[in-house]
Design goal:
By secondary structure, the chain is of the alpha+beta class. The protein is built from 21 helices and eight strands. The strands form three sheets. The protein has a four-stranded mixed β-sheet with strand order 3-2-5-6, covered by helices on one side. Strands 1-4 form a two-stranded antiparallel ribbon. Strands 7-8 form a two-stranded antiparallel ribbon. Helix 1 crosses helix 14, helix 5 packs across helix 7 and helix 19 crosses helix 20. The N and C termini lie far apart (106 Å).
């Protein structure tokens, strides 16, 4: 067969990801805090973008509630008295804009400021807290070097992850010196830090209590395994003490901290800022978008007037202004579209999950992304982006939008039950069970089948683990009272 070149005409549809479309998709999947950061960055980099005034209705470029989907977002004209001069030097102005801002230096002694302690915003870490105590101790320089190695090998929970031999090799000293410094650090705050295992951690804390009775130390030293398995009768039998005394000792042990370093964890608490507020008014649910702190963007009228006039504007400056103008207008339009899409998705979720908003979690219905996508004539990927990192404040609490999408579990009546509703029912059964006779996974399956919920035992075990519920043998509470012997 001969090889030759030919020309063919082919008609095909192809989706091209323009920079504007990529920006709209990016804004759609951002959380509210990330969106505010993005807007702040755009305000600093784009001179044509500015915040509008909230005083007059003329300056409001963005509606408080989303507009219909088929309505284009436009930027209203703003009339100002100031007009650019014809001989305005744009090159000098743009050069000043790109240069760094003027910094005003003011001496700290010239004004009254709070103490440095009240201005600290970062809490101390476990390493810094222990090193501070180490430098205040009477340890020698060699011991401080070894102590620094020990503190550096502690994990987030405060446990030592290296052996004494490894630390001695790193520090070039004897194991006896390492062990001496280790005991010194174990006396530091928080109690139980620098322990090598759970037993040593509890022993350190138990000794710090300085109890007159050594029953607590005896149980931690010799009967910790029975305590973990809740085999209290073996502890009573081995110690020969009264059940009431064993119960008091166990209450003290369970009050100790098994992870002393956790209180100095450097992870900051992330507070949730809801994107949507849902309020019930006259038996109807009203949706409000969270506009708190959201700047009202608009195009700078100064530059728009400059482009409309035949002033002293070079071609390079005009091209730069037009590019920034298109970027700012598309950003405003993308934000409007994002708000409208979130509003419509929230409206659809409320329509599908009306029983949840009226009656609670037990009435949550099975729902998938396809249901909302078909209801709004959107793609499933769009719904997935909208529901990512978005939160809704409801009369039932604050929930992530993805919380309302869950799988279904069949029932004996032919219907379906949401998996979250089943988890809530399992949590209620465990909360109301007899502590001395807790429900096993098999018993929970039988209870759910009485309510026409068809579920397997392994599924119950899976949901129980997700809820953080212990097995029945670990949930069982002992009977500390003395049992009466039956008369023969």
């Amino acid at each position: 067969m001969a090889i030759e070149l030919r020309q063919h005409l082919k008609l095909a549809q192809q989706l091209i990801m323009t920079p504007q479309l990529q920006q709209a998709i990016k804004l759609l999947q951002l959380s509210r805090l990330e969106l505010l950061e993005t807007i702040s960055e755009e305000l600093q980099s784009n001179p044509l973008l500015e915040e509008g005034q909230e005083a007059g209705p003329e300056s409001e470029e963005r509606p408080e509630q989303p507009e219909p989907a088929n309505r284009e977002a436009n930027v209203s004209e703003v009339t100002i008295d100031e007009k650019p001069k014809e001989d305005f030097d744009w090159e000098e102005y743009l050069g000043e804009y790109t240069s760094g801002p003027r910094v005003r230096v003011e001496r700290e002694e010239a004004r009254e400021l709070p103490a440095i302690e009240s201005r600290l915003v970062k809490k101390p870490s476990l390493d810094s807290h222990l090193l501070w105590q180490l430098h205040l101790s009477n340890a020698s320089d060699e011991q401080k070097d070894v102590g620094t190695l020990i503190i550096g090998n502690l994990d987030r929970d405060g446990y030592l992850q290296a052996t004494l031999a490894e630390i001695a090799e790193m520090g070039g000293c004897d194991e006896s010196c390492v062990e001496e410094v280790l005991h010194l650090i174990q006396d530091f705050d928080p109690p139980g830090v620098a322990a090598r295992d759970l037993q040593e951690c509890l022993l350190i804390q138990g000794k710090n209590l300085q109890l007159e009775d050594d029953l607590v130390i005896n149980i931690i030293t010799n009967h910790l395994h029975d305590l973990e398995n809740r085999n209290y009768h073996s502890i009573v039998k081995a110690t020969g003490r009264k059940p009431e005394e064993i119960k008091e000792a166990i209450d003290i042990i369970t009050g100790l901290d098994p992870k002393p370093g956790k209180q100095y964890d450097e992870e900051e608490i992330q507070y949730i800022s809801p994107d949507i507020y849902v309020h019930k008014v006259d038996n109807e649910f009203v949706i409000l978008l969270n506009e708190d702190g959201m700047p009202k963007l608009r195009i700078s009228p100064f530059y728009r007037e400059a482009l409309s006039k035949d002033g002293n504007v070079t071609d390079q400056a005009r091209e730069y202004i037009q590019g920034k103008l298109r970027s700012a207008a598309w950003l405003i339009k993308s934000i409007h579209q994002r708000q409208r899409t979130i509003y419509r998705v929230a409206e659809s979720i409320i329509k599908f999950q009306r029983d949840f908003f009226d009656k609670g979690i037990a009435h949550l219905k099975p729902l998938v992304l396809r249901d909302v996508a078909e209801d709004l004539s959107m793609h499933e990927s769009t719904i997935s982006r909208v529901t990512t990192n978005k939160y809704m404040h409801t009369p039932r609490g604050v929930f992530e939008l993805k919380y309302f999408f869950n799988s279904s579990i069949s029932s004996f009546t032919g219907g379906a039950v949401a998996s979250e509703s089943v988890k809530e029912r399992i949590r209620q059964l465990v909360a109301n069970e007899d502590p001395q006779k807790p429900y096993s996974d098999k018993a929970i399956v039988e209870k759910l089948r009485e309510e026409n919920i068809d579920i397997a035992r392994r599924t119950v075990a899976k949901y129980r683990e997700l809820l953080g519920i212990l097995p029945s043998n670990l949930r069982k509470q002992p009977v500390w009272g003395t049992k009466k012997r039956k008369k023969k």
